[in-house]
């Protein structure tokens, strides 16, 4: 019955290897989504789209809402 013991050892070793690989892989998808959401701090006043920085927000506003008046916070952004 040597094969039975070898099989159990092999399975344990494979499970340990899988656990190490999963740990090295890093964050879960849910954690990555939360981190990305924290970076989106600017919200468009018209369409509620979220942007990471004021420059992107200004470009968005100029392209998507040209007829609307630009918010005061974007007029100073270069």
From TrEMBL:
It comes from the Eukaryota. Keywords: Cytoplasm, Nucleus. Residues 1-13 have a biased composition (Low complexity). Residues 1-36, 57-78 are annotated as: Disordered. GO terms for cellular component: cytoplasm; nucleus. Signal peptide: none annotated. InterPro entries: MBS1/2-like, SERF-like_N, ZNF706/At2g23090_sf. Residues 1-40 form the Small EDRK-rich factor-like N-terminal domain. It is found in: Cytoplasm; Nucleus. Coiled coil: none annotated. PANTHER family: GEO09665P1-RELATED, ZINC FINGER PROTEIN 706. This is Small EDRK-rich factor-like N-terminal domain-containing protein.
């Amino acid at each position: 019955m040597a094969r039975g013991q070898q099989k159990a050892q092999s399975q344990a070793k494979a499970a340990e290897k899988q656990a190490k690989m999963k740990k090295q892989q890093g964050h879960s998808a849910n954690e990555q989504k939360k981190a990305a959401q924290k970076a989106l701090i600017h919200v468009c006043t018209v369409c509620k789209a979220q942007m990471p920085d004021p420059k992107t927000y200004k470009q968005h506003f100029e392209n998507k809402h040209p007829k609307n008046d630009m918010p005061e916070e974007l007029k100073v952004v270069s």
